[in-house]
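Collaborator request log, item 7. Partner lab (contact: R.S.) asked for a structural prediction of uroporphyrinogen-III C-methyltransferase to inform their binding assays.
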Amino acid sequence: MTEHMTGFVSFVGSGPGDPELLTLKAVARLQSADAVLFDDLSSAVLGHARTGADLVAVGKRAGRPSPTQAHVSQLLVEYAQAGIRVVRLKSGDAGVFGRLEEEIVALRAAGIPFEIIPGVSAASAAAAAAQIPLTRRLSARRVQFVTGHDVTGDLPEQRNMAALADPDATTVVFMPKRTFPALAESLIASGLSPDTPALIAENVGHPDQSLTRSTIAELAARLQAGFSGKPALILYGPLMDAE
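Returned to partner:
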């Protein structure tokens, strides 16, 4: 790692929440950082930060007051411009629906060097917790990650329904609770069986994680009736009913 007078930023994926899933490189960066800007869902690993480091909460959670992305990016630049070592701690893997690109653009514009340290994705952790693989040689040879909402909080209008309704793919929907009923309706209208196995994983990697197996139709009906504020993933496809 090359350090400059302008400081250095390490984007660190903290994994889904279980501190034991943190990588050795991530631990090393946390232990040497002068400042850690962290998301809400990554706070469980802050015990690895060195004593005296600035710990700054910059998390964004749907439906809750949170800093704008522009503010977070500017804050990251300002810390690095002080000539210190900064960790930007993001939950799961920083490159998967973690708003990583916006912050990279800000650092590049300011001429600040950085690195990206991958973390265990919540999708992989959810599958592992359910004791199932994400792929199968003959019937699930493709995995796709999609977001459950766009910048407005609604289901994205531009959706590749042929891909999303592929019965031979494993699909993982991030941030799905509010919009999955509408997505399920579109999936069924596009030819996917309402009995397609589905799994909702809540608080993955935390002591109170829960895994519930269902079907896309049953899960959509359940979420239509109401849901908790716990962070969740929904996985659907041929492997979700594997025991």
